[in-house]
Amino acid sequence: MPVPRITHVRTLQDDAATTWISRWWPTLYEADPRATAYQSPQWLTAWLRQLSSSSSPVVMTVADEGGLSAALPLARHRTGATDVISALTPYAEYNGLVGPGARHPHIVQALAADLDQLLHDGENPELAHVPAHSALGRALDGRAAWHTTRTRTALVPLPLDWESLPGNLRRQHAKRERRIRAGHSITYARTRTTDALLQMQPELERLHAARWAPACRPRTSQPHWGAVLSELTDTTAFIATITIDGALAAAQLCLYRGATCWSLRPAMNPDASRLAPGHLLLRRLIDDLSSHGFTGLDLGRTAETDGQTGYKEQYQPRWSTALSFTPIRPRRPAAGQVALASPA
What we know:
globular, alpha+beta, 4-stranded antiparallel sheet, 8-stranded mixed sheet, single chain
């Protein structure tokens, strides 16, 4: 029989959590080559500084006889009479355990059990966008205490051999290229320094606002993306752009680690929609990343709409799933049921 492993889960909050993340998170991240750029110390620090006065950091750590093994960064949000504990980084496409033991079954099961215990203690934990193939995703999926929502994700393997695409896709890409090259000047670029990244950020936000202007404005306060990018710097992020006839037509914030790049916050000029600037930018970004040795471009979570799935299908992605977990609360019995259940 396998020998049970001794694990210890600890939950730190407020200043203790902030101090712990500052001291220990970089070491855990470096020891976990599978952790994404959404778990980088720069990304966590950026969102720690974006927490509102009604929110505070929480970190769950797991140790075994070998020492500190993995951790999960969270935040407590106070909303009236109810607190919600959720992922620390709200704009991350993926969340999960980080550390050298993040895929060890005894570590993951210990953390999952403590998340269950939070629920039993009357807390309101939830965890969004956990990769289904991850050890934490598998440990939480199907547990009685949790409701699971599934969202498809798309990863484009690089380099992309355009000639190997199905004929209908090749024709669509070729048609767009002919249309844009007919009398138009096109320039692709991506930022290479932190100064260039910060200079381009307001332009990306301008495009993003123009693209979503017809939609309802969010009620919650929006992050200060300039402050976020100043933490990320050029070692973690860049912005890729396309200009058409000298005017910015599309921009895309990307995070990267090693040979993988993650697409985040794409924005297109609606006045240039006839020329499909989003496709134009993505094609050149794919070729650029491929020429620099990247092996994957992650396009993130995907709404099940023709617009999103159809858009990403044109790049022959490898589809996976992200899981979001919310607690299942037992129904309170009706008054009549209570009476029937009570002793005579």
